[in-house]
Amino acid sequence: MAHRRTPLHILIPSLVVALCMLLPLVYLFLRAVQADSATVVELVFRARNIELLVNTLSLTAGVLVLTTFMALPLAWIVTRTRIRFRRLITVLGVVPLAVPGYVMAYALLGLGGHYGILTRTFGWEVPQIQGYWGATIALSLYTFPYLFLNLRAALLSLDGNLEESARSLGYSENQIFTRVILVQLMPSLMAGWLVIGLYVLGDFGAVALMRYEAFSYAIFTQYAGAFDRIYAAWLSLMLLAIALLFVMSESLVLKRRRLASVGRGQARQPHPRSLGRLRPLAWAHLTLVFTTSIGLPVLILGYWLLMSPPDLRFFLEVPATFARSAAAAIPAGILAAGFALPVAYYAVRYPSRFSTVVERSAYVGYSIPPLTLALALVFFALHTAPALYQTLTLLILGWTLATLALALGPIRSTLMQTRPNLEEAAHSLGHGPITTFTQVVFPRLRRSLFASFALVFLFCMKELPITFLLAPTGYTTLAVTVFTRTSEGMMAEAAPFAAAIVLFSGISVGLVLNREGDR
Amino acid sequence: MRNLLITLIALGLIVAVLATVLPFNNDDQLTLYSGRGESMVSPIINKFEQETGIKVNVRYGGTSQLAVLLQEEGDRTPADLFWGQDAGAMGALSEAGLLQTLPTDLYGDLPSIFTSETGEWVAASGRARVFVYSPRRVSEDELPQSVFDLTEPRYEGRVSWAPNNGSFQSFVTAMRHEHGDERTLQWLQDMKANGTQSFRNNSTQVEGVADGSIDFGLVNNYYLPRFKANDPNFPAEQAFFSDGDIGNLVNVAGIGIIRHTERTEAAEAFVRFLLSHEAQQYFTSTVYEYPVRDGVPQHEELESFERLLSVAPEMNLDQLTDLEGTLKLLRQADLI
Question: ipTM value of the model?
């Protein structure tokens, strides 16, 4: 199969993606060579960078562990048990993605201290959560849905026959989980970890508020403090190098894994099982995950609103602002999912060194600091297509490049679990590549495509640096409004907009995921 | 299902096409890049639009992001004006050759601490560096006289700063200018050794004092009044160091006209409006900043204009442009 020629409708979009991902690299290179070598040495090779890198890596490790403990049981509960309100739980499991990082940090910070919510409301004085643990918890609370969605998609498309065979061979439930299911889940676990790891690498908002010093500090300072693009390019390249390590280690783990079932017969979903004795435990887990990841931000927003209720006119601006956010986030979601499909298909069905490189290139847009990506697009738009500059099209394009890697995860995991035999059979029955794609491949990928769309949509709804630089002048989104107001200490005026991000994005994603269940 | 998808795609395309085709930049419209937040400045911009009939399109963003963006755009920029949060950013743009010379009659009657020697930008409002403190945990005799006092053992672990913050960095630049690099580096290192805690920005430091994480914070003057406006019992106070101490640096938000604009006349009208009595009154009454001209009734939370001029150290704002040197020191002290 690997030696068959790749059809053009897969190859061309994949190449387009790879070329687009080259743009920011070319830009970084152009800027980096402008630097003076002595300053580069001073900036790049200093002991402090090592210290910051170690901090960043230990933060990443902490977040990966914590998010796994949150997401894996959650995905298991909604796909394999007959728990009540499964749809609602699924939607709630995605909503935290809509919480802007700094809002989550404010929510955690706002609890403790002399002037914290607990002290002022109940007189309980608890210390503030900050530093390493503060950053780890805050990041985990709003990134675990990446893992949850990936795992859920994988669990849903997992062939139930495997588990049943294992059961009939006398495996215990625990053995089935560790030897059968966990192995099958590896691609989606890795995809989720990779996306979260790269996110943690670049996050500045929550980390800075928690006063934990990570590598993103260095990059932020170079742009913000020095108004400089040239040395910041060097630091961005350093960050990309680490991101590359992450991406490569994922590939190494996944290499030569054969996960699709080979026998005859239809893959089918396992029957959801009754929870039995585990019911209280499951509910305890759900309660803990959702009171922290959704309850805390809702609490802080409500608190801001009640402490100093803002004028009604602030609420009236919310719908139009939401419409502006969504009008760019929806096309970006569709584009990202649309391009992720051929890229993932190319890499999974036509594995070669080249197709792997093409697929991995998608991570450039996601792991490059967003400010750098935006500057690259400014540069190329002004030099090649000035008419596009400061139009919505460019913003949508920027968001698509930044999020393509997010969209890849769910699609790729599902493809790895589906047999190519079906497609081959369709071919042999005389279906052309296009009808095979629409009739055989697409239906099996529908769920993953929706998950991809949802991930991208939620990312864009709260995205800041790219919006700041690429949106049309005067095109204020919800995220921009919330950020500018909170950074001026106008919490109450920011709260309705932050609530709108969480609420409306939550509802829209809920709608999408629910439609998916209807099929 | 397919219908929903098609509708979504169609909607997205229509929006994208409209956004591309609709002109966002007309001849009689000004484009302003504002590093100042929308909620602070949009009322006064609306006022300008009403009075002159000139429409202003505002691009809001971080001061530094917009300054970097203007450099990237160069002569292709759609911007006519830049309104930045501090003198350092204005100086950086001026040095990059992106601003044009303003007519002297615009700023001739302002005190020299509010103008630039290059004449390429002017202060639109002033803000002072102060220290915020907890009246509960700080006794009268502990209030520092100079920012250099804070390295004493009795302040160990009780003070905060924001090394990544533009206004803090401008203050360090001013200290270097006044006391030299060596003494400044020594101060930074002594402060660090004394357990000074790094915060994200000014407002988080004010919250930190209220929350009890710290007892003193080095901040700009206008954050605490905003917290007090929401809660009169907010548990923090602020004060100046003694007169002329570098810790009381008066910095500014500045406005400049982009060199490549074709709308100089309208842009000048905007600058003139910002310096007018009316706009200055707005800055002090609503945003708690200092006016740049005398004769504007001060907000009660702020010190008087004369008092401000007497506590402020002698400092030419053009001296605040050497950010590279400041970052170098901050890096040497391992603060950034």
Answer: 0.77
